Amino acid sequence: MDSSIQVLEFEKPLAELERMIAHLRSHNNQHDLKVEKEISNLESKIGKLRSDIYSNLNPWQRVQIARHPKRPYTLDYVGLCFEEFNEIHGDRLFSDDQALIGGTARFQGEAVMVIGHQKGRDTKERTKRNFGMANPEGYRKALRLMKMADKFGLPVFTFVDTPGAFPGIGAEERHISEAIAVNLREMFAVKVPMLCTIIGEGGSGGALGIAVTDRVLIMENAYYSVISPEGCAAILWKDRSHSAKAAEALKITAPDLLKHGLVDEVIPEPVGGAHYKPEVAAQNLKVVLAKHLGELKKLPLERLIELRFEKFRKMGSFLEKR
């Protein structure tokens, strides 16, 4: 396990075994000890343990992986899956929101529009990008870029990774709810293929504001929810320590979302999460994006809009009491 990667609580047994291997190798180099067999046994044990851990992750553990600070963000995937990205700034109304970025690019040689939430790697960047929580101007910028894509016939790719829209006083003063609501309405009318991928956190309206698309995809260890597990626990149990229980009850992980028809496909990640092998995760993403874009481009535009509306109209189920 790379020492630069933060170790999550459930990964500590793996980290301990890898520490032991590093210790044995260090002593072997210094004293010419014959420890190859012990190292080999430990490596076999690590392989089995890693497989056991990551094939049986519970919802709360997946949430932790989705929030991992080393996890690839939108700009990482843009660099690995797209070419010639040119960022476009500002909503032409108030300012440029760095929590939600976008611009033109090429995907397998085709001109496209890319839009997504962007978190920060260090304190300075996290402050600049507001931890991936967009203000109203972020959603208005996103809509401006979608309309530009519509005008020039560019397929739209969106990438969701936010704990939610920013709930600050300034955001409320500039009508954050209205900005998201307008996006929800207008995205149904964009006459180009649109694909959304949830790459990390998919928090509430902050996620949905760029997720009304023809296909909604999700990375294996991402989540998509109307509320965070902590927020749910605080409401239902009056105690955030019940977050793991809330994550289970909310059915927010990729397998549950696919089962309930809220996403169209789960994109596999490398064992240990996308942050262990970003290039592999990006390649998996690129293959799935290419497949779905190819399918959508075969549809007449009128049918594309009809299917997008039907997709979201039929979500959810309910019982009528008579």
Describe this structure in words.
Strands 1, 2, 3, 4, 5, 6, 7 and 8 form an eight-stranded mixed β-sheet that branches. With 322 residues, the protein is of the alpha/beta class. The mean pLDDT is 91. It folds into two domains: 48 residues; 251 residues, 2-enoyl-CoA Hydratase, Chain A, domain 1. β5, α9 and β6 form a beta-alpha-beta unit. The relative contact order is 0.12.
Number of domains: 2
Query: How many strand segments?
Result: 8
Instruction: Indicate the mean pLDDT.
Output: 91
CATH superfamily of the largest domain: 2-enoyl-CoA Hydratase, Chain A, domain 1
Name the shape in a single word: globular
Short description:
The chain is of the alpha/beta class and 322 residues long.
Question: Which helices and strands, and how do they pair?
Answer:
Blueprint: H1 12-31, H2 36-54, H3 59-66, H4 74-81, E1 83-87, E2 100-107, E3 110-117, H5 123-128, H6 136-152, E4 156-162, H7 169-173, H8 176-187, E5 194-203, H9 204-208, E6 215-219, E7 223-225, H10 229-236, H11 243-250, H12 254-259, E8 265-267, H13 278-297, H14 301-313
Parallel strand pairs: 3-4, 4-5, 5-6, 5-7, 6-8
Antiparallel strand pairs: 1-2, 2-3
Helix pairs in contact: 1-2, 3-11, 4-13, 6-8, 10-11
Task: Offer a few descriptive terms.
8 strands, alpha/beta, 2 domains, single chain, 322 residues, 8-stranded mixed beta sheet, 15% strand, 2-enoyl-CoA Hydratase, Chain A, domain 1
